């Protein structure tokens, strides 16, 4: 009977130890998953607030194209040149 108990103990003890290690790892992974979920939720909330601000202001966050920032100056330059040509044109 002692041999059977020793044999059973020698088989079960490593299995119980492996099970305990697995349970510890599961607990660690659950905590990590909770942390990652919280970080994801915070990032989604921040993204949503950025989109809301962009919709309110009408901006996409990207710089304006070159022609959009310089077109008033270009129109003014064309008007000045046109006025100079028309005023200096011989009659």
Write up this protein.
Helices cover 87% and strands 0% of the residues. It has helices at 2-57, 66-88. The protein is built from two helices and no strands. The chain has one domain (2-88). The radius of gyration is 37 Å and the shape is rod-shaped. By secondary structure, the protein is mainly α.
Properties at a glance:
single chain, 91 residues, mainly alpha, 2 helices, 87% helix, rod-shaped
Quick recap of the structure?
The chain is an all-alpha fold and 91 residues long. The protein is 87% helix and 0% strand.
Mean pLDDT: 88
Q: Termini separation (Å)?
A: 129 Å
The best one-word shape is rod-shaped
Number of domains as seen in the coordinates? 1
Main β-sheet description: none
Order of helices and strands: HH
The Rg value, from CA coordinates, equals: 37 Å
Structural class determined from secondary elements: mainly alpha
Give the percentage of residues in beta strands.
Answer: under 5%
Number of helices: 2
Low-confidence stretches: none
The total of beta strands comes to 0
Please specify the SSE layout and strand pairing.
Layout: H1 2-57, H2 66-88
């Amino acid at each position: 009977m002692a041999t059977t108990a020793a044999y059973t103990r020698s088989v079960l003890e490593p299995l119980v130890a492996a099970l305990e290690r697995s349970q510890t790892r599961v607990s660690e992974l659950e905590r990590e998953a909770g942390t990652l979920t919280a970080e994801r939720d915070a990032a989604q909330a921040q993204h949503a607030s950025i989109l809301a601000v962009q919709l309110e202001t009408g901006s996409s966050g990207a710089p304006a194209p070159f022609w959009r920032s310089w077109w008033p100056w270009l129109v003014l330059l064309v008007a000045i040149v046109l006025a100079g040509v028309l005023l200096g044109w011989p009659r």
